[in-house]
Fold each of these.
Amino acid sequence: MLDPALIKEFKNIVGAENVFTDDADLLTYSYDAAVVKPVVPALVIRPKTSEALGRSVKVCGENGLPLTVRGAGTNLSGGTVPTAREGVVILTNGLKRILEINEADMYAVVQPGVVTAQFAAAAQAKGLFYPPDPGSQAVSTLGGNVAENAGGLRGLKYGVTSDYVMGLKFFDTNGEIVKTGAKTVKCATGYNLTGLLVGSEGTLGVFDEITLKLIPLPAHRKAMVAVFNQIIKASEAVAAIIAARIIPCTLEFMDNFTIRAVESYSRVGLPTDASALLLIEVDGHPAMVEEDAIKVEEICRQQGATDIRVAKDDAERDKVWTARRSALSALAKLKPTLVLEDATVPRSRIPEMVQAMQDIAAKYRLEIGTFGHAGDGNLHPTILTDKRNTEEWERVEAAIAAIFDEALAMGGTLSGEHGTGIAKSCFLEKETSPATILYSRAVKAALDPRNILNPGKIIGG
Amino acid sequence: MSDMKALAQLMKELEDQLVVCMRCGMCQSVCPLYDQTGRESDVARGKLALLDGLMHEMFRDPEGVYERLNKCLLCGSCAANCPSGVSVLEIFMKARAILTGYMDLPPAKKLVLRGMLAHPELFDRMAEWGARFQKIFTRPVNAVVGTSCARVISPLLGRRHFKNLAETPFHKMVPALKTRPGKSGVRAAFYVGCLIDKIFPHIAQAVIDVLTHHEVGIVLPENQACCGIPAVSSGDMKTFRSLLEHNLNRFNPGEFDYLVTACATCTSTIKEVWPVMTEAAGNGDKGLLQRVEKFAEKTMDINAFMVNIIGLASPTPGIGDNTKNPPEVITYHDPCHLKKALGISVEPRTMIKANPNYRLKEMTSSDWCCGMGGSFNLQYYGISSTIGRQKRDNIVATGCSSVATGCPACMLQIADALSRAGDHVAVRHPVEIYAEQLKRT
């Protein structure tokens, strides 16, 4: 229980109705979408102005209260699970204004609680494009996307959230405002604090305003589905498309297990006997799109595709992406617990990685559906289990470690887009080095000496 | 009050259904309540976590959980959009029953549910008295919408603009009916429902007109009772079971092929809620469950019945003539209990389009909940009317002169929102729109 005087102070800052102290409310902020142990916070506050947000951080700083910032709580690595001792959760969903969409200079300024898909739609209404489209975009917040450096289906051509953050205003551990970056295309002043803060999972500062880059909407696009009777041929086709210097905006992979789950769930007409599918979309100038589409089709055939279906119109195109987007839902319906990994490898190693997943599933006797962003090397091996089955859960944990080992051995990374959080912090040293952890801890200690900004995430401690 | 362990034990019944939620949070994008409040305990994920918390004895606050669990529209938007397919409504209704059993019903609810609703004849009589005396306390405010408001400041009515009780309820106009089928060869039983009987009897009359026109044999038994949803949503299994048995005994399954209702909530209650809650309320009575399942199977929304069984299409050749030129603009609101619960959204539109005097113009977010939620509206009128106001804005933006919807509860909510904004938009049922032209031909 927090000091009642402090609770009163928070009530003065954000209003009594935006301070939650009942056990039943606190419990609902003890988890996020990751499969990690819930931790109940001591207090939850919901500031609705930038000023209230800054003053709240200041009070936490002055009193050494650990704070965890939470948007929609959809992250998959435990980054928004609060801290055990007197943890304060600061909600950003009361800060959801798009402050500016500048068409002439193609940028936007937003508050951290703006929902990703709503922002993308607002940009699109002005003929502009915000490409990052994480799976949770219908609910995820831009503050959360920046803090986790979220990705999506378009990473291969358009990059991830970090490629669109031009500048930030954020509160430091004392509640003082820090500015970094600019609204200009070029900016060479000061340290690149933007680079440091993106993906820092709330451990180095609390976002107040985010300046995001926007680009022109592509004029034309074409989607197709390539069917393969051997999983290895599909993954080799991915490598061949990249090797031919074609960058589709989306290049997704689905294994047979996932295909069958999707088809029985959404009946979109996928070939359930196929070993693997590639779902491909090219976009850009109409002439280039047509040319690229023909080349991609040729490559897929050369690599042994047994069938290629090109979407004839928007309705058929939507069908392709409905199928892809329902992959996670379809798999989720099969078992109570779903562990979604996102270990990522250099894209030329996709064939080996796909094979490794098959071997791991067999070795640990687990059901693993593999789908994901093959074009950028970011597969999502999805383990289906029931966390109540402790014997199986041990095999799941062993399989996760094995997946990480495989990815690292191929020169890959533990996480393409889900972040480190709590779930992967103990594996970080494997990917980097002991000195890297110490260096990172030194940065954290210098910027947040009392260790109140989302403690325990990324670098442990 | 018994101890927390006992409650946790009861909650275990829900365990297999609770573990299905993977906390992905996608329900946040569709919950009309969360959209207003931004509070996790208002959205399905939060409520499921609370039930999970009680089950695992993570905290000791069943009252807090009960209060938050009841703060829900039961619109089912979350369930319809859930990637993992969590049976959200079923869990919520069962949990309400468990918690109500554990803590007992609040006295006011006990009075309404067990004192009145559970006794259909008494309920009918009280409504008749109400209809006689209501003019003393209320005055008309909007002739097009057909609403009234309180004459004096009343804590019960507040700022509401409401539809008065009908002077003559439907069961007085047509107490019972049995007709033989004509060339359709189909026999349909008609379940009227409380709101249609007592507030919108003309909708029931329209149902009779439409069925008669299409030569459907009608079975209308007298002394029908409430479908039981107010009891289920209050966790009152005793009242629910008594209403269930009363209704089952009114209808002889051998006499009809289908049972139709014009109320989205009654239809979804009979089809979806009756079977799952009979298991909870029936104490293992297998015979009762079988009767309920058969009954549920035959139950259909009137729009779906007309389109899918009778084969009504739009435009219907030979029916109606275009007497309004240009046709009147009408829009349609999808009741949650039709679209999200039963997947019915095309059929009511087909009914409307079958009348050439109307031009259907879609509103933005036609399937976003209107904010009614039955007793939710009584307990949380502020939030309910803010959600209703959004619906009103979307309706008015179409420039329509009527809005149709297949649920009398939605009609009440929409009428309140339109009337309070001073709009001149009539609130109708698709079956009325369709029936209108039959009278002319």
Amino acid sequence: MSKRLIGILTPIIAVLLGIIVGTIIMLASGYDPITAYTALWNGAFGEVYYTGEVIRQVTPYILAGLAVAFAFRVGLFNIGVEGQFLVGWLAAVWVGVSFDLPRIIHLPLAILAAAIAGALWAFIPGLLKARLRVHEVIVTIMLNYTALHVCNYIIKNVLTDNKDKTDLVKDSATLRSEWLQSITDYSRFHWGIIVAIICCFIMWFLLERTTKGFELRAVGFNQHAAQYAGMNVNRNIILSMVISGAFAGLAGAMEGLGTFGYVTVKGGFTGVGFDGIAIALLGGNTALGVFFAAILFGALKIGALNMPLEAGVPNELVDIIIALIVFFVASSYIIRKLLDRFGKKEVK
Amino acid sequence: MKKRKIGMALSLVLAAGTLLGACGKSDDNAGDDNAKGGEKEKAFTVAMVTDVGGVDDKSFNQSAWEGLQAFGKENGLEKGKDGYDYLQSKSDADYSTNLNTLARQDFDLVFGIGFLMQGAVEEIAKQQKDHHFAIVDSEVDQPNVASILFKEQEASFLAGVAAAMTTKSNKIGFIGGVESAVIERFEAGFVAGVKAANPDATVDIQYAGAFDKAELGQSIASKMYSSGDDVVFHAAGATGNGLFKEATDRKAKDPNAEIWAIGVDSDQANMGPDVVLTSALKRVDNAVVDLSTKAKDGNFPGGKTITYGLSEDGVGLAPINEKAAAKADIEKAVNEWIEKIKSGDVKVPGTRDELKSFSAQ
């Protein structure tokens, strides 16, 4: 079996396994799996409204997935996407509410601010890793909490007068569009999906088609070999964290300028950054893979909301079924190994 | 090159499948709707969207769901699409989707529970002008939205009276969750109640800054009891669970200790049978039943704000603990105050400013 075929088959088998085990659990606890999965499908694609909501959810997922995947390709585990996502969200709204500029300048400026904020937040663990070999996992986890509380403080004390929600961003900075909403029956579908697709292309081009991308990948494969070959490992580590953080910050901009149009004080994490890890894994850390994995996760997330109402499946069971699909997706390594062995036998 | 073409073809097929799937489905649904329109006399249906707490949060989501269940029972409705139901939000982004889903399922009235949903309710109400919505603990100014507020100060006033008549040290504690208009109403009413019943007593006010940090609640309660406060009231959600823990611990160490805690929202007597004096009740369930009944009878108060106080049975005080020495006296005094508040003789302050000019006589 060719490598490419295995790459495509693995996630599909993972999803199927998740669905099968979910079916068994539903049968065992007395719910009708066919109604449940129909409800899941209808909740994601049954009406044009839901399809719009799925795309809305997919947009930040793509960017969060790209952020994790990019760092992965350079051998770094960026758990801090959630924190970079939050500072990006804040920065985008900050620019969105504080300036009065023509749309052609304001919108790109707000998006850029989010990317820079995310990049700066990721620069810290990148620098610590490159200079002092501090493990990026610990630093990024801690910076998630720092980001959460710093953002809450700024929202309460700088952007508003002790309120828990900022004003809406100015019309000139919004990604929302009446037209997109009207064709999807008032979903929150917004232009951000274009940004996400462009970023997919940027990631692919940067990694696969440029010298810098080759260097980054080389560092990911083997740092010592890369160093021996005369590449600057430290600089590449910092660069990859910064780009990864910029993607994460952009994901935040999608929520701040598109989905919500404001930023609120949060009691906990949104989960987008963490879902990004699963999306990157499922997508095999490639731009195209992340794109499709994000669609799957977005559809699952939106569709699952419909299951309790339409199929009477309790929320907890829905969580278990979705988690199972994610579980098999995340353990796709096992499937890959099995497929590999199976393929080798066939060749003999 | 060939490979790339295959990839392209694959994604096109997927995209087409998605789009066509969407078309086919929406046609089906249009058919369903017509069929539904054909059957007349559809039963009144009502649903709610919880915030991330869910319907078992031991607080107002749970209370609202209990109200909806009671309303369903009263009117012979079943849980589900043709009766009453709820959707749970897993993140802030889900509020809009859930509200929209329920409106699309043609529920006659959709509740958004909690002030967090204010923005989402306002937006969806503008889009779905034919549907009725209600929001609890916040105000939305749209013709098809009814806003539900509570006079929390009246409940906490009564709790203040009970606290002032129980304290021996004349020192009383108040633990707030996060500073906000709602918690300020609790605070102002409580202080007013204490002053009205016992002008010599002082109230020590502290905010935890969170609704979900029991350990923080416990450390504040510990400091309060140590500094001589013998009755502590909390309006801090799950943070207040730490108060009950601390009070129960102290009581276990020294059974003669004269310390009490007062609960909030629902009757929290089971949090510490020996230490919970009473609870300031906020009857979200009653408000939900009341508004649903109004809507069912065709009197939906769209565009209005309804404030539930003592007179409307929207707030109240839970039974006083049997072990309280002055139980009979407290009950007598509380009932007197209830009459005064209901008749309008006493207006309980709802903000710190109003508290300054408040006098019970």
Amino acid sequence: MWDTFITLMITVLLFIYDFVGQNFGWAIIIFTVLVRLVTYPLTAKQMKSSKAMQELQGSKKWNDIQKKYKGDKEALAQKQMEIYKEMGISPFGSCLPLLVQFPVIIGLYQAIIRALAVTPIQLVNLSKHISDGANLIPIHSQFWWMDLSEPERLTMFGVAVPVLAILVVITSYIQTKMVTPPTQGTADAGGQGAQMTKAMSLYMPFFMGYLALTFASGLALYFIATNLATIAQYVLTGQADFKNILPKLPARS
Amino acid sequence: MKTMKKYFLILLLVLIALSLSACTGRRVAATGWSEITLKEDIAYFSYGPQVYALNVKNGAQQWVYPVEAETGIDFYAAPVFADNETQLIVASYDSNLYSINPATGRENWSFTGAENRYVAAPLVIEQGIFAPSSDNKLYGVDLNGIPLWEPFETGEPIWASPAWSESCGCIYVASMDHILYAISPETGSLLWKTEDLGGPIVSQPAVSESGLVIVSTFNNEIVALDEKSHRVEWRFHTPDWAWASPVIDGEQVYTSDLSGTFYALELASGKLLWQLQPGGSIVSAPLVQDGQIYFATDASSLVVVSTDGVVQRNLPIEGKLYASPASNGDIILLAPSEAEFFLIALNQNGTQIWGYPPAE
């Protein structure tokens, strides 16, 4: 079943590749945007759940129970569940759509790498996914200054600069900040979860940047395209909070 | 609950990272295979980042090059002898051509002129060493690695080893640009070329004594060209891409395609004599020895068939077989991929004698 799914993705990717004049870079970008559009209902659901959760966690009621049951985790969890039920919010509402998107993300990446087929065995395997695509072989992996099958570096004034990896870090940071709600309520309300969120929003872009630095630049291009698509979705639905992007300075006492 | 959600998110990110890493390794996974070169009791072959010399009788390692595997180097091309067998030439995925001393495994020289990966083995003839590259060019160097002429450029990467034609006095270079080029080894200049043959060519052409050049193409065809008239003599249609090099044996041509069908054709006319479909794709040329044909499939089998098309044996082998079988007359060597051993030796009954690397 997974193989059928990948074959479908490769077929669409190569159709776009052929349609845009055999340019694999544009094929990745267009394909990523298309996949984001197809999975938009899931993303919208996730955004809606996140927003509801964000509003709930900023509410007085929520903060009050955090304070009240500070020392009793069990009772706190029970009360939180009651509030979720009362407000009609599923605590995993924003996670489940993400979970459904997980195979799509992995499938998309596998399709990109398999379609590139820069080595003999990859080409043998690709032949099993495309019944009549000999006219597309070899797949041209050059896109601007990049070879999409190799990690990217742009030599400027004698220095090899990983431009894509830097762009991945920047767009991942903006995207993460937009998606992650700001820590609200009291310090207790934020607690361990809030610290974890903060740490993730800081480390995640660097982690993505490391992947972009190390792996084929086709992956980095995909990261950038998907980050920009997510940012665009937030902007177009009016849910982008640009104030959240800049780090907050500690308030003067 | 909130904490649980965060742990869940972290777990998800780790899963994504692991999945992506599994897909790529350090970069796009370097996956290829090497043919085996035999010289007396020594087998030379490449696997991943190293080239090996093993004793054919017992699989004992003679040397390995480089001694420590290096990141960024992979060898897909078969090692080939040069300079009265005093040099072993190996083309690497790091875009370099290496000359190794076949007795010691030490490097003699390297040629670093190519701009992209070597996938196919170079052709070594009296006039020099001719290495095809994924940068679309054919490089000609002498026995010291010094360029003979400006590289000859085709329209797409060259994954096929060039072939030498005694009667034409030329090198045939088949490119992924669908064209077969005849090149002068002395000057590197074009002597003649075919029209577009309809599909990429990734395997070495076969040249017959009667002056036919036979190529397998991804246009689902085996095409025979006349060396003198440069015209297409015959075409044989296959249901899938034809990858493997054709092998000429007397008046027959043995070839195959990725549908897993093996064909025996009449050399002069391209008429089908017999065919077999044992399962799996066939990407390597067959070995013809003592009236028997050995061909490998990626469905983990070595098929032994008589020259009139009767299957003698179908031996299950662990791993996928992309490389051609090799033999010194007594022992058959196979280089499976995705298997415990990356070189195995079978006796004539098909029983495994040894595997390399040896089991711990």
Amino acid sequence: MRSAHVETTINGQPAEFLCEPRQSLLEVLRDVLRLTGTKEGCNDGNCGACTVEMDGRIVPACLVLGVEAEGAEILTIEGVAQGSALHEVQRAFLEGAALQCGVCTPGFIVAAKALLDRNPDPSEDEIRLWLANNLCRCTGYDKIVRSVQAAARIQQQESAS
Amino acid sequence: MSTFTVDPARAAAPRRESSGNGGPGVGGYEPNMVLASATFDVVGTRPVRHDGADKVTGRALYGADVHLSGTLHGAILRSPHAHARIQSVDTSRAEGMDGVFAVVTAADLPPAEDKLVDVGEGETKLAYVHGNILARDKVLYQGHAVAAVAASSPHAALEAARAIDVEYELLPSSMTAPDAMREEAELLHADLFKQEFGEKTDQPSNVAEHFAWRLGDVEAGFAASDAVVERVFDTATVHQGYIEPHNVTALWNHDGRLHIWCSTQGAFVVRDVTAKILEIPVSSVKVTPMEIGGGFGGKIPVYMEPVAALLSRKTGRPVKIVMSREEVFLSTGPTAGSHVRVKVGASADGRIRAMEATLAYEAGAYPGSFVTPGGMCVFAAYDCPNLSVECFDVVVNKPSCAAYRAPGAPQAAFAAEQVIDEVAARVGMDPVDFRLRNSAREGTRRVDGPKFRRIGCEEVLRAVRDHPHYRAPLGGPNRGRGVAVGFWFNVGLESTCTLNVNANGTVHLVEGSTDIGGTRTSIAMQAAEVLGIPAEDILPEVVDTDSVGFTSVTGGSRTTFATGWAAHDAAQKIVSEMKARASKLWSLEPDQVRHSKGVYSANGRSAGFRELAGQCSRTGGPVSATATVKPRGVGGSFAAAIADVAVDPETGKVDVLRFTAVQDVGKAVHPSYVEGQMQGGSVQGIGWSLNEEYCMGADGTMKNSTLLDYRMPTSLDLPMIDTCIVEVANPGHPFGVRGVGEANIVPPLAAIANAVHDATGVRMRRLPMSPPAVWSEIARA
């Protein structure tokens, strides 16, 4: 099968790759670019483990073809921390014990960051609705929801000061 | 979140049971001190987990993230039928395809010898493991592996697997235990003979085992009862539902050594089972456990490791296989569907006089349904002299059952805890008061024989009774509240831990327990407590099977208990050695040096751990210690749940409004991760109760093998899960630990069913309580 050449932006850096037309963005990220922080849980858009941000929208990378990344801006878990500083959501997940096995965590963090980018003060219901695309089987979501609430508070305090 | 602490020294007459004291080679400290009433500096605090930064940045490497140079990709051809004879397998078309390097079938496996193999938490016949890995003559369930391919890419491998031509002769299939127990049911195994009460019979059967336990005189007990309730319950097959699919990369190197990278709950089990299947020495196999994306018992079995190894041997290249989600549903996991009859009788004074149960569990394609622990647990929460429990382990045409969090116990509790509620109502008692009046306690004999040592059943029930949730108003129509209690044994098994002291006073901790939910940290904390240094100064690492002593699976709620104990013992050895080093510095005898909280002192002189660590080179060289344990003092754990639900009478949909999980954990080493286990287990129980099931068609195939249609709880389906940690110290562990992770999934099923009854007056005796099921029951009532 002839490969396609794709130019895109990943985590703020220009990137280019070759992929088969049938390969998903998830396969490209993991197998071609070796950005393995984005996880595969179901490969049919139902678990959220491969959540990435693409042109400002959160999408399951398994439902996007690699060739669709042409000209797009993509954010993966590897681009969430800024230099040596963890993002508030990442810090809150650590301090709030919001992960157990950790395999769903990259998807949750990308999704939660996108929520706080849009809504800096979400209610518990808004958090639960926004994160309903992401399955976690370990935590029962309690500490995830609380950690997103904590991250929102930290962000607000930091922007106020 | 609340904690309910019981000091056993005050709560019960002091009594020292004989219990484990740390395995061989341990000395220099007082073993088995009951310390739950003591205060700790590290144990009981909430440090950030050591592997946390890797896991929030995407750097942690899971099994599917392994990329070796020259890797080939494997795919497995699986049976589309629930039960069929394999007439022929033709691999020639696949072998001729571009990019295909090798094909294997059962013919490539050495023949199965007639022996037993330890598969993690017990033994089974090697032939069963063998048959499940690649089917030889028959396929026994949809998804049963038939052949495998190694190719240049995952897509090429999949296409080639589909090009393997298999001819099947279809056979009738059985999907439930009662179905497979019919006399005319098609036999799954011609060589499976029913075991009757431990004796092998000459009767071929789908019933692998039938046995019973009896205590006292149940007939007399029922005769002395004023209220007797007998009911029958069924539960559907459900899956553990870990988010990460099974995966393996195998390299059969040219030096004859086999190296396996995978996500497993037990690297040594993978090593030992793979070696037995392939008939090679265990010393030829090295297993590197990668990070694991959930297990819950389902990542104990070996499925693909020997297959990837065979493909690697044929090709001389590393071979990687990752299951699809559909394969995970069809070929791994599930937990037994069940058919359970429970009968309970009580006298008007609220005393239970007799309890009787019959449990028939679906083992899946091979024996081993976990009906045995189900039978041991069904009445474990009650002190009753007249007990009778009968169990059937039944093979059916579904995937071979794997452990799932307290395997076997939730199905039993779903039945027993609903009947208990009915009996309590008949004798006019509050359901918690009724349970308390009949609660198991130290000295209560379980139906299977053992007497309980110090347990926390009463304390858990009192915590329920006294919890504000239990008395809070329900606040609306069609709402109800239910409670239930459940038991799990927990296990000990075997662990190894090594500590290596660095010159700057930090300590590397080397262990072999897969970390699924923060155990690196809970183990490290126990070493830190003994050494008197911060948890952050211990640097834990889970290593491969060549690099640490034998360590059993992460399962049975044992890791913090047993590997933590090994860490405790290794740290005690370090303390002894540090005393010796200090004595050298001060020209004293080692026994003149005292140690407290990381400070070593004698005759007015003192030095901290870091200072002594910095002097190691001058005082005799590196300081390092290893401890191994096979602990006896395992402490069983009781858990309870309080569930509030709202039932929509128009649709039958059940919403969980409020949920409180209570558990006696002995001692919570890291309370955040203890709460996390309680919350996660509770939510899996909620999913099991309300939505999850294998929907099987008439042809024995699964109709909902995606995460869209197999409906696990999402964040939107749930409230916060409140936790109440009860600490009745386990006298068998240095810090009083019992273990968490399992008991918490036992009570939710019945607690929710009892809540649905409270809301609607309808008794749900079949799981799941999905909207159509609840609606039908309401309509019928």
